[in-house]
């Protein structure tokens, strides 16, 4: 299911699908999202995750 929104609440990023169901929550700072990925910065590293919350890259 596609990502409809990602929201920063405190130090946690919450990611939701188009039915407003929570996909996952990750600690860090939201850097951006698309319908298929979202990126979260933790320290000096930016992690990119897929629409299921699985990590696909770290930079």
Descriptive account of the structure:
By secondary structure, this protein is mainly beta. It has one domain (3-58). Helix content is 0%, strand content 68%. The chain has no helices and seven strands. The protein has strands at residues 3-9, 12-17, 22-27, 29-33, 37-42, 45-50, 55-58. The strands form two sheets. The protein has a four-stranded antiparallel beta sheet with strand order 4-5-6-7, with no helix packed on it. The mean pLDDT is 97.
Defining key terms:
68% strand, 3-stranded antiparallel β-sheet, 59 residues, mainly beta
Rg of Cα set: 10 Å
User: How many DSSP helices?
Assistant: 0
Number of domains: 1
User: How are helices and strands ordered from N to C?
Assistant: EEEEEEE
Show the helix and strand layout:
Elements (H helix, E strand, L loop, with lengths): L2 E7 L2 E6 L4 E6 L1 E5 L3 E6 L2 E6 L4 E4 L1
